[in-house]
Write a structure and sequence with these properties.
Elements lengths: L1 H22 L2 H16 L6 H23 L8 H17 L7 H9 L5 H31 L2 H31 L5 H10 L2 H5 L2
Helix pairs in contact: 1-2, 1-7, 2-3, 4-6, 5-6, 6-7
Length: about 200
């Protein structure tokens, strides 16, 4: 169950945050921010130093959540969308460092029976396209945080940005079929995304 939540929390949490903004219920954020951190970070796993650091972060999130609930203040919710985009961006950036395999190329190596230089060149470039796209969304999040009304900020950071990510995924899938002239089942592609061992994917 925890693994299921870990895979889908990037979609569940924004939806609940938006409901909290619309209906002005900071209690939801006060409860869910520490909960999702527990699912993502597993604060009681790791060596003693990691446990201490992650437990400290968890206590801080609980404190901030309780303060936001007590003062009916939504300011805490500006941070998670930025952190989520950074969390998505980090493995892409790390994968293009010298000596590493670009993330999407790594994905293809793990899921496709056939790999060739042409496909590797394509996926290397595609990894950089995703990096640029995610960085633009991150800049947009920062822009909306300081200049947009709360409801507009929430609409973009919790829905539209993720729809844009999904749109890029779908458009790239369609382009890939056209470019390589080879059909790829969207159901099989989605299954691979959801079932691939993330530890193996991110291992460099």
């Amino acid at each position: 169950m925890l693994d299921f939540l870990a895979r889908f929390q990037f979609f569940i949490y924004p939806f609940i945050v938006h409901l909290s903004v619309v209906y002005k219920v900071p209690f939801l954020i006060a409860c869910l921010l520490p909960l999702f951190y527990i699912v993502l970070a597993r604060p009681l796993r790791g060596n003693n130093k990691q446990i201490i650091i992650k437990s400290g972060i968890l206590l801080l999130l609980i404190l901030i959540g309780l303060l936001s609930w007590h003062y009916l203040d939504h300011s805490i919710i500006y941070l998670p969308p930025i952190l989520m985009m950074l969390a998505i961006l980090y493995p892409f950036i790390r994968s293009v460092m010298p000596g590493n395999t670009p993330l999407i190329t790594r994905f293809y190596q793990l899921t496709k029976a056939e790999n060739c230089p042409e496909v590797s060149r394509y996926t290397d470039k595609l990894t950089w396209i995703w990096i640029v796209f995610i960085m633009l969304l991150l800049v947009n999040n920062l822009f909306l945080t300081f200049l947009a009304p709360l409801e507009l900020w929430s609409l973009f950071t919790n829905f539209i940005n993720y729809l844009l990510l999904l749109s890029l995924l779908v458009l790239e899938w369609l382009f890939r079929i056209f470019w390589f002239k080879k059909w790829e089942s969207p159901i099989e592609f989605a299954r691979q995304l959801l079932t691939l061992d993330q530890r193996e994917l991110f291992r460099q």
